[in-house]
Amino acid sequence: MSLQRKLRYAVLGIGRMGSRHAQNLAFRTPRAELVAVCDPRSTTLEWAKQSLPSSTRVFTDSAECLGQDNVDAVLIASETGLHAKLVIDSIKAEKHVLVEKPISIDLETSRKVVEETEKYPHLKVMVGFSRRFDESYREVKKLIDQGKLGKPHLIKSATNDQHDPSGFFVSYAAASGGIFIDCGIHDIDLARWFLLPSNPSIKQVRRVFALGHNVQHPELSKDNDVDNGIGIVEFENDTILVVHCNRTMKHGHDCFTEVFGTESKVIVNGNPQLNRVEIRDIHGVRTESTPTYYERFREAFVNEVNEFTDVVLDDKPLPVSCADALEAAKIATALSHSFKTSQPVYFDDAGEPLLV
Amino acid sequence: MSLQRKLRYAVLGIGRMGSRHAQNLAFRTPRAELVAVCDPRSTTLEWAKQSLPSSTRVFTDSAECLGQDNVDAVLIASETGLHAKLVIDSIKAEKHVLVEKPISIDLETSRKVVEETEKYPHLKVMVGFSRRFDESYREVKKLIDQGKLGKPHLIKSATNDQHDPSGFFVSYAAASGGIFIDCGIHDIDLARWFLLPSNPSIKQVRRVFALGHNVQHPELSKDNDVDNGIGIVEFENDTILVVHCNRTMKHGHDCFTEVFGTESKVIVNGNPQLNRVEIRDIHGVRTESTPTYYERFREAFVNEVNEFTDVVLDDKPLPVSCADALEAAKIATALSHSFKTSQPVYFDDAGEPLLV
Amino acid sequence: MSLQRKLRYAVLGIGRMGSRHAQNLAFRTPRAELVAVCDPRSTTLEWAKQSLPSSTRVFTDSAECLGQDNVDAVLIASETGLHAKLVIDSIKAEKHVLVEKPISIDLETSRKVVEETEKYPHLKVMVGFSRRFDESYREVKKLIDQGKLGKPHLIKSATNDQHDPSGFFVSYAAASGGIFIDCGIHDIDLARWFLLPSNPSIKQVRRVFALGHNVQHPELSKDNDVDNGIGIVEFENDTILVVHCNRTMKHGHDCFTEVFGTESKVIVNGNPQLNRVEIRDIHGVRTESTPTYYERFREAFVNEVNEFTDVVLDDKPLPVSCADALEAAKIATALSHSFKTSQPVYFDDAGEPLLV
Amino acid sequence: MSLQRKLRYAVLGIGRMGSRHAQNLAFRTPRAELVAVCDPRSTTLEWAKQSLPSSTRVFTDSAECLGQDNVDAVLIASETGLHAKLVIDSIKAEKHVLVEKPISIDLETSRKVVEETEKYPHLKVMVGFSRRFDESYREVKKLIDQGKLGKPHLIKSATNDQHDPSGFFVSYAAASGGIFIDCGIHDIDLARWFLLPSNPSIKQVRRVFALGHNVQHPELSKDNDVDNGIGIVEFENDTILVVHCNRTMKHGHDCFTEVFGTESKVIVNGNPQLNRVEIRDIHGVRTESTPTYYERFREAFVNEVNEFTDVVLDDKPLPVSCADALEAAKIATALSHSFKTSQPVYFDDAGEPLLV
């Protein structure tokens, strides 16, 4: 690791996650430097003054920000609807890009972004599937690569979000693409990472099936969404993913993954404990849980940007490409379609879901 | 509880489970008495002499055994193919019946048995769904009835059997009806118990979907069976069961059930530990697992026969009826059909699966 | 195992534990038979009529009960103060004896009982250290005997009782001999079982040290007792026991034992879970705990009486002798003395504590 | 938090922990800046060039390093024998000091350092008891302060180190002061933090008692040290610490703390798991353990230096003072003395151990 040169970042979008990314870049990344943040909101300047190094420039216009010569790379953490445009603007401005998932909730838009990035092969464009950078999932990947699981053949994974009685989540849901696209995409990406060979065939998926119901948020139905969704993905190599997404947990954020191999089974996050404290009182023997995905994956976000920095500075292959994101999006979209039509969705030989 | 009168049992079939049932009846049932065992095998007499009270009579012919006046009830633990015939013979002989699940691997045969038993309303006929008598599943039922879960809406359940390298299991599989009928029936029964009202409507199920693959036992394919099967059951009351059956675990028998309610979620058997010992050595921090279902459910089998005895002696309602067994069998059969046809199977308004 | 002959028991003392023992003997012991119970209380007859086989005779006078020819063995579960007398009466009546621990809270009385039993070598006299019959502690003993722990050198053990706000416990404490004798005796017996060779030298202990305090029950101080006591026992073979006894837990009865060996460490009952149910709700991820020692050791009491029955019927060596009980009592008494005098207590070459 | 001014650090001693501290200061501390490192070893320069920002100056002479005007604070991570001298040199050079524990293995030397620091009240001098900065122990402190434990009255704590077959540890032991001073000091500090009031009386401890044995490292005996030590500390406010230190674990570094309160008990690090992965294979259900204290406390070291930085920049009170370190050292020294003399050690009214 050389510390001679640092990668200079701008963060586009300083919302909840963007502000965390900016602080990671300012204080947790040996080879990266935060040089700018950009957000149209007027509060950004004040926040940045309080929370970021004084050397950080603050922009309200992304074009202006992308025009800066001292910006080598951008981290896009804007609202989802702007991801695709900002990726394209950034590569046109010759910046490397780390964009939060998803590229888009719309498959065609994602596809166009992938095609556009392929025109800039000298630029690195990575989609932030944060779980790939979590130490526990990485340990599973290592165990698989070492053969400790035998042949991994089945993944059962659940992304259980804590119930949000404030209603914020529901208002946000309409723009999220629905539960399989917003929430299941992480489990889908894990399944592709763990179950498929590193050079998978064009047709990766045989078929998917999904169903679901609303138990806390009946108002989601008007957007054809649910607060509990179950999806099954049968891959072409005869491996299977069963994914459960929900928004209705009372104890916290609880994402739980079982990977079944012929020699062993591993579980990630069997108990979503917040820390190493156990309490024994009138409620029994108990642990507190991580309230949100952020407490669960805080370090993964740091690893993610550090690893992307290495990829750019050392010209290494991307750990997760836009093509990976597109494949995951196809599956999530197919699950959404299956849920809405009550039918299995098959994939054709070109690897495209038949959304009939 | 009156101890004045004891229910006098004959056990039909002294194989692996039958011999355990006979010993339970001999030594673990305050209100029941073992008076006879029956098995055509010549080794039975010798085993009984070693293992049972000397007062126990041994028969090789079931008709002769059923003809005994001092037999009030029979426990049928023969091979599955004989269950239906022995139930009918027993009720015709005016005996109460506790029969191991399933009544039959064939839906029509089960249906005929149910119809026959309805002609003998004064006799109690119970199918031994042992998990209903396990203290942990009963605790869950109690929590549900107390409202502690809010509305239970989703069950994810897995029956994971330890891999049997001897091949015994495969030879047995052909007569078992396949993984959903042999192994999934317990999870299906639990789901009906936990998710449906006590007086469910005629049409209980909306549709099912199943898939699976063979990872250790490719020879199962010739019987159209798998060693890992996944099934989804969407009930008419909008609750869902996701069931996973497998025969490929290395650590032991591990049946794991999650029950999701709107107020809390409960897990049964998160760690299938054999006892209360934890070992910390070069393999890490670890526990041993129950090798088979028997170590897991040993006490449930005792509870089962004690509770059935109470039902008969005190003329109480059956905790699980032949009609319950038939409904579970319909669902298991539909899952098998879905697996074989790769299509969802729908149920009609009469509650029958459309096995097209 | 021969079932030809059954050992015929009388249970002396039908209090809380005596009634459970009587039911175990009536319904859970293939080779034992309950023929009589004896208790001076007038309620006994009624209880026995409801709860025991009609063949069980009920006595109010122990001498009359011990005079019965059809009684082969007695199980003594009276109040502690009567244990010694009843043991001696029973062996004089030529009965085998299984007596609840302790023989006496007074060391000299225990010693006299041991001396008396030695005059009847044809009779089996066992003290009911129930943990020796618990499947988890037995598994630890097996692991030790197999060498899996290397050399076991240190035990840290805690007997944590649930806090009893009713005050019953305090009223009982005065007659119990204090926390080390009443409660620590089990941990001491385990330590001797796990740490000492099967034929230990006469001088087994080098010294002990104890201290304690009252945090919930200041009224215990008037009897020179505490609700939290810590004891250390240094054995002559250079192994160590650290024992903690308390009466102040809020979650349940929690007895927790760590056995440190040179190759591995084992823990018994790391989580005192009541059953296999885990709840995830607003209180976190949690399990319920066994409320009392009885839920924890229910099966151990059954094993205990079954094993004692085998010992008598098959003339096998006692798994735990009166001499073992006496040695444990010496240690407990020395701990009590150390607590009261604030000084270490040393043992002399004859294996006696120097209670100066 | 103002980011306008950064605290400029030199790290003295770039060994195993010093190099980690230097990297934390370089990359993980928003308000701190690493300006220099100092180590007499010739390899330091090369390592610093590879691992630290190019702006970091490298010294081999501590006097020269301490003479730099742009150094505001030092972090002392040298070998223990140099701690005291470097602390005094540093405060004389008007630098704030964060020194790794212990100040010295010799009580009188520690006392002199404390006295010296009192002459420089404008300088902050903190001893790095890293557990105080661990999120789990902090959670316990918060629960105590919130009254969730009722009155905390007893701590049972163990620092279990992984067995080191290389013999490195033994060679290091002679200079470490023995197991109670080297290893137990952390548990002692925790006990003082959790059990004593924030302004404890002069006499904090009533008496201590210790014992121990060697099971893997008999060669330690020549230095009067052991690989397993047990200590008991009875505080003047009638609370108790039981501490177990050992060097003989096979599964990893396992430091385990139980805090008993009148309303609840909490456990820290019941399972010393390395990550959130659980493996189920032929060895059972298992987790991997943290191999050393560093994997366990990595983030605590970052918190520690960030918090010390805040203390200096915002002139806040020290979370753990030199006086705290001295009190812990008195207790550890008393335990060592008790072990060597086989006698309890009492403290006098001035709070000094009577090392007779």
Give an account of the 3D structure.
The structure is a homotetramer of 356-residue chains. Chain A has 356 residues and is α/β, with parallel strands linked by helices. The first copy, chain A, has 2 domains: 7-123, NAD(P)-binding Rossmann-like Domain (Rossmann fold), CATH 3.40.50; 132-297 and 327-346, 2-Layer Sandwich (Dihydrodipicolinate Reductase, domain 2), CATH 3.30.360.10. Chain A is built from 11 helices and 15 strands. Chain A has helices at residues 16-27, 43-51, 62-66, 80-92, 107-117, 135-145, 168-173, 179-182, 185-195, 293-313, 322-341; strands spanning 7-12, 32-38, 57-59, 73-76, 96-100, 125-128, 152-162, 205-213, 228-235, 240-249, 254-261, 265-268, 277-281, 284-287, 345-346. In chain A, helix 2 (43-51) links the parallel strand 2 (32-38) and strand 3. The longest helix of chain A has 21 residues, at 293-313. The model of chain A has no long low-confidence stretch (mean pLDDT 95). At the A-D interface, helix 1, helix 6, strand 12 and strand 13 of A face helix 1, helix 6, strand 12 and strand 13 of D. Strand 14 of chain B pairs antiparallel with strand 14 (284-287) of chain D, so a sheet runs across the interface. Chains A, B, C, D: It comes from Kwoniella dendrophila CBS 6074.
